[in-house]
Design goal:
Helices cover about 20% and strands about 25% of the residues. The protein is α/β, with parallel strands linked by helices. It has one domain: Ribonuclease Z/Hydroxyacylglutathione hydrolase-like (Metallo-beta-lactamase, Chain A). The strands form three sheets. It has a six-stranded mixed β-sheet. It is globular, with a radius of gyration of 16 Å.
């Protein structure tokens, strides 16, 4: 967990090629780059699950050091360069990210060495929120968290749309899928079906 908002940043790498992607570099750019260097990784992508400040804060530092492409859903592109829209201003910051190199729509398959990363558009927390499926692991950003869901009291958010996204696009992936959320601890689809109060009938 990085930064004062304790967001989770993940580094995914292909063992053979050492190609890597950084998911949601919220802060701690030097720490992230140390992990990259210590493991001899070649960062190809910086992927933001959405455009809030606690998920994009180190985009600029990571991109400058690695020349990686910044990827975000097209509906969150405007958050990258606006401290007001990405909510940085509410924490007294003026955080901006470099513009996206590639805009996502959902259902793309992004190759990373021998790995295949599937993009799943899950609007609700923001209009452009996405989740990333890598084999049996789901990186869910602020869409689905352990026993809760992402906040829906922010601009562009909708609790109805968020729950619909989870029910229609995430739960069918299967109970055994492990979830690595944007905050707090990991969980599984099955556990959230049973215990998440927002998903109960």
């Amino acid at each position: 967990m990085l930064g004062e908002l304790l967001a989770n940043c993940y580094i995914i790498a292909d063992d053979g090629s050492r190609e890597a992607m950084v998911i949601d570099p919220s802060a701690g750019g030097e720490e992230i780059l140390k992990v990259v260097g210590d493991n001899n990784l070649k960062v190809k992508y910086i992927i933001n699950t959405h455009g809030h400040v606690d998920h994009i804060g180190a985009n600029a530092k990571i991109k400058e050091a690695t020349k990686a492409e910044v990827l975000i859903h097209k509906d969150d592109r405007d958050l990258l360069g606006s401290p007001a829209k990405n909510l940085a201003i509410f924490w007294g910051r003026m955080t901006k990210s470099p513009p996206a190199d590639r805009l996502l729509k959902g259902e793309e398959i992004i190759p990373l060495g021998d790995l295949k990363i599937r993009v799943i558009h899950t609007p609700g927390h923001t209009r452009g929120s996405i989740c990333l499926l890598v084999e049996n692991r789901l990186f869910s950003g602020d869409t689905l968290l352990r026993n809760t869901i992402g906040r829906t009291d922010l601009p562009g958010a909708s609790s109805r749309i968020l729950v619909q996204s989870i029910r229609e696009r995430l739960l069918p992936l299967g109970d055994g899928i492990r979830i690595y959320p944007g905050h707090e601890e990991e969980t599984t689809i099955g556990q959230e079906k049973r215990n998440n109060p927002f998903l109960q009938e």
